[in-house]
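Notebook, bench 3.
Goal today: get a predicted structure for Threonylcarbamoyl-AMP synthase from Alloalcanivorax venustensis ISO4 so we can plan the truncation constructs. The sequence was checked against the plasmid map this morning, with no discrepancies at the termini. Length recorded as 189 residues. Pasting the sequence as submitted so the record is complete.
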Amino acid sequence: MTPQTTASGQHLLSAAHIIRAGGVIAYPTETVYGLGCDPFDEDAVRRLLAIKQRPVEKGLILVASDLDQLDGLVHLDDAQRERLRQAWPAPVTYLLDATERVPAWIRGVHPKVAVRVSAHPLARALAAAVGTPIVSTSANRAGRPPGRNRFQVGKALGGDLDFIVTGDCDPRGKPSTIIDLQSGRTLRD
């Protein structure tokens, strides 16, 4: 199944405006709905973590519209940059060396940051509309199954969210693979 772009342009612009204003939203990714906010807004990130019931120490994933949107946030040599250009967009998250611009509330206790250029057209379009990468963590409370559609997310978390983007996820999909780019080690397959 290929994710459908079912959100209108205005719907996506509303979601981007809410993120820029400090809101927390849910949006479709390749496999499940994600919770998102502005990664540089500490209050928004802490609110997202409270909704999810996730400790800040674990760190969070950032989803970008393209590789260039990560400039200044990660350290990449030319070979690593080319490898990522060939790998993305895809449901593959890479751990990359973070610059000092990546806040501690995103990295957690880690020196690296988890980043992805999503293969889902709405997730990429949302990051492009916001103008920065956005937080991406599964739309669920810790220990509960992630929401795979708007209805599930609304039922479980709707009262805590500022907006839910309408769109499809692949119901057969698995969470993104996580690979440490430097070592090549797969942390989640």
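The domain at 12-142+162-188 is CATH 3.90.870.10 (DHBP synthase). DSSP finds six helices and nine strands in the chain.
Flagging this for group meeting.
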